[in-house]
Design goal:
The chain is α/β, with parallel strands linked by helices. The protein has 25 helices and 20 strands. The strands form five sheets. It has a six-stranded parallel β-sheet with strand order 10-9-11-12-14-13, with helices on both faces.
Length: 680
């Protein structure tokens, strides 16, 4: 309940400038929402209101009436816990975010959740909250702008030209992913990347002096960033001058603004108490009195302030109209490039792109699925200009280098191969940043065991419905001599546990082709490709079902033995399909009726209707055996109570791949023996 007061409602002090009123409107609109929700983080919006005001009213090019305008500047609130700052700015400047939604902050079904969510709230550029993610997403956005500008701009037509801004926090800078991303951004000299650092020197546990005493400015200067300091966070002119200087510099910029967390709160300002809990009526009213703001009504927005902020609508409309005129002129002179760019920004695939997908002939020796993936990727590179990505210093191993493209670098923005360096976490977040920006089919690659280093961006890609592609090779004990440190065991199960993530483990080269097709076509969710180091035979598709069955998650390769209901179903994903095929042949020769099922994706199979699922896994065949070189967790759903799982619920060994498989019981003979036990 709100505390009652005997104070007569008053308007803001008459001697306050419109600028002061506009800044304090951000503060108290944010604080009122947090207080009403009785939940949230008032410290950041109250402390950074002046820097946000400066950026949004003097520099940010955007159109609230069209949040998806292609050439808008991007604004990332990396410290997503301060979400009310962003929601206040969006409402005030005229985005489709009503005051009623502000009042419903953190409530069920509102457009103002506790942390910003991409795709939910108009104007939110990326999902933030897990610290450091927004920082690295912004690097991806800046890379996107630089590449598109290099590919499509012409000397007389600069149609791609925008800046990525962010407000970042102490917590962001402490996270390792920010260090990885900052290092790469400095190396690449991403000059259209400008971050304002909310240097309030407070963390949840107290002063940052408890654990964070480095010279952040020197650190970023060492990364190759342009670093400036603003001593007073309320000095709008100094902040404005710093942003102008940053825009004129060829390096990425960090503007260190010395702020007071919870600015204005009588007893909590500058303390950890301002960070993550509502201020309370007494403290909030005290701040309003100190800054000359009316105690009532809550959610007060002066008419002149709203009119001032809503100028963003007219300004944005004019800026977008001017840009559209430029684009129309560009399209007249360069129609092919304009059509291609329109398609990329709209997320459309070029007509007939599928024709580039290779078909692989039957081959008993075959090839590693990482190798066939490399062939598919290189074939697609000629048909899909939007492909853009690379690996964490593993391109020769992951086979993710596009031979027809150069490397994206500080001197060559035309390139689409990215040297991410040994920075898996930042790579995942930067790939997401490219997805958020639009115009790309981005991918990042490393070994499957190192997916653990980049789980946060994989999860956020799934939460945000991004089309990011994560290529993970060396997907099992088939890694061999590198041993258990590099042999993924639990990673497949952990990835399958992420909602809205499609994990594909193709069994041969032609399933790899279909896996890439699936990843490219389904841009509303991220895709993992789990690929082998070791060679796998390419199945004879005249004997087995077409590889297009991959799109349904699981499909019947063939039924062997006498006609009639199968006595047992053998199912596997990836490399283990090459074990169940000869095992089934032996069982059929022994008189059993055997069904072979390739099972590349649990998620896609679970999405099929019950009729299809029953056709693949009929209920009247309880004898089922699943084989996978990973933990058994989750397979029980598909084998049922009467089935078995041949899997690895321990770690691998250092040995040649064939010896490792044999030592751990993943052999044709073992499969045959277990199958006969199940049939009885």
């Amino acid at each position: 309940m709100r505390a009652t007061t005997t104070h007569k409602p008053t308007m803001p002090h008459e001697n306050q400038s419109l600028q002061d009123l506009a800044i304090n409107t951000i503060r108290f609109l944010s604080a009122d929402a947090i207080q009403q929700a009785n939940s949230g983080h008032p410290g950041l919006p109250m402390g950074t209101a002046a820097m946000a005001y400066t950026l949004w009213t003097r520099h940010l090019r955007h159109n609230p009436a069209d949040p998806n305008w292609a050439n808008r500047d991007r604004f990332v609130l990396s410290g997503g816990h301060g979400s009310m700052l962003l929601y206040s700015l969006l409402h005030l400047t005229g985005y489709n975010l009503s005051l009623e939604e502000i009042k419903r902050f953190r409530q069920l079904g509102s457009l103002t959740p506790g942390h910003p969510e991409y795709g939910l709230t108009p104007g939110v550029e990326c999902t933030t909250g897990p610290l450091g993610q927004g920082f690295a997403n912004g690097v991806g956005m800046a890379m996107a702008e630089a590449h598109l500008a290099a590919i499509y701009n012409r000397p007389d037509h600069e149609i791609i030209n925008h800046t990525t801004y962010a407000i970042v926090t102490d917590g962001d800078l402490m996270e390792g992913v920010a260090s990885e991303a900052a290092s790469l951004a400095g190396h690449l000299q991403l000059g259209k990347l400008i971050y304002l650092y909310d240097d309030n020197r407070i963390s949840i546990e107290g002063s940052t002096a408890l654990a964070f005493t480095e010279d952040q400015g020197a650190r970023f200067a060492a990364y190759g960033w342009h670093v400036q300091h603003v001593a007073n966070s309320e000095d709008v002119e100094a902040i404005d001058a710093a942003i102008r200087a940053a825009k004129a510099d060829a390096r990425p910029s960090l503007i260190i603004v010395h702020t007071t967390i919870g600015y204005g709160l009588p007893t909590r300002a500058g303390t950890e108490k301002a960070h993550g809990e509502p201020p309370g009526d007494t403290e909030l009213n005290g701040a309003k009195q100190a800054l000359g703001w009316p105690l009532e009504p809550r959610f007060f927005i002066p008419d002149n302030v709203l009119a001032f902020y809503r100028q963003a609508l007219q300004r944005g409309e004019a800026e977008q109209a001017a840009w559209q005129a430029q684009f129309d002129a560009y399209a007249t002179t360069y129609p092919a490039q304009a059509d291609e760019l329109r398609g990329r920004l709209a997320g459309k695939l070029p007509a007939g792109w599928e024709a580039a997908l290779p078909v692989f002939p039957t081959d008993a020796k075959g090839m590693a699925t990482r190798a066939s993936s490399g062939k598919v990727l290189n074939a697609l590179a000629s048909a899909l200009p939007a492909l853009f990505g690379g690996s964490a210093d593993l391109a020769p191993s992951t086979k993710t280098w596009m031979e027809s493209r150069s490397a994206f670098s500080e001197t060559d923005r035309n390139g689409s191969n990215v040297h991410f360096g040994v920075r898996e976490h930042a790579m995942g977040s930067i790939v997401n940043g490219l997805s958020y920006h639009g115009g790309f089919i981005p991918f990042g690659a490393t070994f499957l065991v190192f997916a653990d280093y980049m789980r946060p961006p994989i999860r956020l890609a799934a939460l945000s419905h991004l089309g990011s592609i994560f290529v993970f090779t060396h997907d099992s004990i088939g890694v061999g001599e590198d041993g258990p440190t590099h042999q993924p065991i639990e990673q497949l199960a952990s990835l399958r546990a992420i909602p809205n993530l499609v994990t594909l483990r193709p069994a041969d080269a032609n399933e790899v082709r279909e896996a890439w097709r699936s990843a490219v076509e389904n841009r509303h969710r991220p895709t993992v490709l789990a690929l082998t180091r070791q060679d796998l035979p390419t199945l004879d598709r005249s004997l087995y079902a077409p590889a297009e069955g991959l799109h349904r998650g699981a499909y019947v390769l063939t039924d062997l033995g006498a006609t009639g209901t199968p006595q047992i179903i053998l199912m596997a994903s990836g490399s283990e399909v090459s074990l169940i095929v000869p095992a089934a042949q032996q069982l059929a020769e022994q008189g059993l009726r055997v069904r072979l099922v390739s099972f590349p994706s649990w998620e896609l199979f679970a999405a099929q209707d019950a009729t299809y699922q029953a056709a693949v896994l009929p209920a009247n065949v309880p004898a089922r055996l699943a084989v996978e070189a990973g933990v058994s967790q989750g397979w029980q759903r598909w084998v049922g109570d009467s089935g078995r799982v041949l899997a690895l619920d321990g770690y691998g060994v250092s040995a040649p791949a064939k010896q490792a498989f044999a030592h751990l019981g993943l052999t044709v003979n073992h499969i045959v023996a277990l199958a006969r036990e199940l049939v009885g």
